Amino acid sequence: MFSYALKDAIFGVRQFISRMSQYLTLHPGDVLWMGTDGATENMKDGDVVEVEVPRIGVLRNPVRRER
Fold it and tell me: Which of 1, 30, 63, 66 could form an SS bridge with 47, CB 3.0 to 4.6 Å?
């Protein structure tokens, strides 16, 4: 399991959202993935990616091979 602190990010949240919104429209309820603070292993079919926000909940997505 990985833990990520935004204070360790290369780009701040404001800069990230500003840049991202130049290319797409953000809507209330959108979830933004800020990346990882280190090297990640390649994901494979059957893996599960979980993102937890304390006091809000867990977003859980299975990884599926593109067909």
Answer: 63
